[in-house]
Every structure is written in C-alpha cells, then in structure tokens.
Amino acid sequence: MRISNLAPGQRFRVRGILLAKEVGKRLADMGFTEGHEGVVVRCGLLGGPMEVRILGYELIIRRSEAEGIEVDALSPEPQLKPTSIAAEVRS
C-alpha cells in the first residue's frame, strides 16, 4: 500500500521508499525509513499535497512523492474526546 492511499487520521508504518536519487534520499532523511510510524494529518483537494506527522515532525509532501512511499496501514489514530472548559473547572 502507498501512503497516498491513506485517509486523514490513518496511522502507518513505513516499509520502504520506491523513489530513487535525490527525492528518495530526501524523504529518508526526513524520517521515511523502514519501521518508523506516522499518521496522515490531512490531504489536499484534487490530488494536492499531504500533511504527515512522523518522528514528531509535521511535513507536507507532494502526492507524487507520497505515491513512492510504501507503508503498512495501522489502526486509525484515536480521537480525543472533546471536553468543555466548564467540565474541567468542576473537576
């Protein structure tokens, strides 16, 4: 599976980079190396760039670059329960 196929909130584990030369090396330098886990934060419309969180960094990558990153999909990131300020004050 490619990272470009994942939806926002979907977690992943990197299997490898299928891109060669400078682009592949740059992605590896940013943390897209085998075994590292991350999450897709959001995706641009109409095949636009993707925001990805990996190794504590939030990165924007082109969709064409995302198509060259092979991943294993993991369970979605758990959603935080919204709480109101009033509920926290009462505690």
Summarize the structure.
The protein is α+β, with helices and mostly antiparallel strands.
Question: Would you write up a description of this structure?
Answer:
With 91 residues, the chain is α+β, with helices and mostly antiparallel strands. It has one domain (3-90): Ferrous iron transport protein A (FeoA) (SH3 type barrels, Roll), CATH 2.30.30. Helix content is 21%, strand content 32%. The chain contains three helices and five strands; from the N terminus they run βαβββαβα. The chain has helices spanning 21-29, 63-66, 85-90; strands at residues 11-17, 37-43, 50-54, 57-61, 69-73. The chain has a five-stranded antiparallel sheet with strand order 4-3-2-1-5. β2 and β3 (50-54) form a beta hairpin. The protein starts with 10 loop residues before the first strand and ends with a helix. 19% of the residues are buried.
Strand content: 25-35%
Q: Write down the domain tally.
A: 1
Reading off the top of the CATH hierarchy, the class is best stated as Mainly Beta
Overall geometry: globular
CATH-defined superfamily: Ferrous iron transport protein A (FeoA)
- Roughly what is the average pLDDT, rounded to an integer? 85
**What is the helix content?**
10-25%
Radius of gyration: 16 Å
Main sheet: strand order? 4-3-2-1-5
Profile the largest sheet: 5 strands, antiparallel
**Series of H and E elements:** EHEEEHEH
Write the CATH architecture name: Roll
DSSP summary: helix tally: 3
What's the total number of strands?
A: 5
Low-confidence regions = 80-89
